[in-house]
Amino acid sequence: MIKANFVTAKEAAAMIQDGDTLCPVAMTLVSASESILKEIEKSFDETGHPGNLTLLHSCGQSDRKDGIQHLAHEGLVKRIIGSHWGLQPRWMEMIAESKVEAYCLPQGQIAQLYRSMACGLPGKMSKVGLGTFIDPRIEGGKMNERTKALEDITEILTYHGKEYMFYREIPIDVCLIRGTVCDEMGNLTTTEEAMKLEVLPAVLAAKRYGGKVIAQVKRVAAFGTLNPKEVTVPGVFIDAIVVCENPLTDHRQTSSWYFDPSYSGQLRVPRSNIEPAPFNERKFIARRGTLELYPGAVVNLGTGIPNDMVGKICSEEGISEDIMITVESGIYGGVQAGGIDFGIGQNLCAMIGHHEQMDYYNGAGVDLTFMGLGELDGSGNVNSTRMGTRCTGAGGFIDITQNAKKVVFLGTFTAGGAEYGFEDGKLVIKKEGKIKKMVNQVAQISFNGPLARRKKQAVVIVTERAVFELAEEGVVLTEIAPGLELKKDILDRMDFKPIISPVLKEMDKALFIQEGTFGLKDKISD
């Protein structure tokens, strides 16, 4: 019998050589190979090796303290190529201070690049990224001064008269994956993981370049006892396996809990167990956003207000089965966890691979996506990827928004300490935010407004005090919250002057109901 190679976490870390390209597969802390990542950090602290790594990752992989935060040391990693660092403060600091070469690529393009590399191609061609900061004619995804002088890792191709982005291959030396159980041959399942992710494409990409695959698991089973349909990675592709010694700490299903079967499909919880979202400006904004829904819509939720609020509101309002909510990780239906546990959900009806989900988002395009709002300018450009020196990165934002049939941005009108009250069907601004989000020019083009206008893509921007739509002529103000003055509370707080709709309306007063439902089911069925 072919036997698996079982090693300690320390031995696994020693398999990574100076200068290697390391590719861990995870999202947030879901499926993070924590035992191995800790040993890599410890080895570098004690010996200075491994060093000068290239860290390649499709998703953000941390909960602000663990995951690939363990690798955020100057000298350990020379170059990082990833999509999102919003939950990785040390990486954002290193990138901002030019302590590492840093490239941002769209999350879905990296996940799909693994598959392209696995089948022998020199890269991946896509329209995703054109006209955004990823485009080499704009910023090339280069996130700091240190990187600006370096080579592009993407290029523009013209095929049959149309422009495409070309994402070049990035050979993988070591791929880190995580599973639930492996057998004595090394065949690996991911049964208790809360996402499927892009595990097998990344593994096969590493194999294409002669790279090593290292896996972390919770348990070992006898050969022949695993259901072959549940095997995610055949053991012949895995070079070393680490059995986690402390799974309560180092093999958690997600950051906030060790294991909950309702997030991996082994259990469904009663709907009454799901707590309603508290009423505040975030829920108010999300409520107004849900008025853009319609029965039968397939919906995507981005991070922030969309993922934290929209799914819960749909559950409260009894429309969860009238629409289909999806998240970029590959989950369908249910109620989504939020914050540091982004990308997972309870009571799901389906779960597919991360790269497969991006096939849908990049190809057919989701019916409607809710996304967070950082900045908006008068051309309709949106920045949700860089705020001052804080470079969160794109995540799946660009993959999803460029092809969605309708984009609904959700965010507060200002940032930096704003406080609100909701009284007698009116909005009260108790304290104004210090930072304007409606600006003359966004700091980074995450979403290209003129391109969306040329495509006649439906775009709505929802804040607590105003609603805008993107029209052929520009940004149009269509609604304001009851209780506000148009000039003082809205126009004077904007750096650009929007087009004011001739039929400017007040927001629906039902949105202000703080207890119970606000009648969404009837409103979207009219």
From TrEMBL:
SUPFAM superfamilies recorded: NagB/RpiA/CoA transferase-like (SSF100950)
Organism superkingdom: Bacteria
Keyword tRNA processing recorded: no
Active site: E328
GO biological process: ketone body catabolic process
Keywords: Transferase
Gene Ontology MF terms: CoA-transferase activity
Family assignment from sequence similarity: Belongs to the 3-oxoacid CoA-transferase family.
PANTHER family: ACETATE COA-TRANSFERASE YDIF
Name of the protein: Propionate CoA-transferase
Native organism taxonomy: Bacteria, Bacillati, Bacillota, Clostridia, Lachnospirales
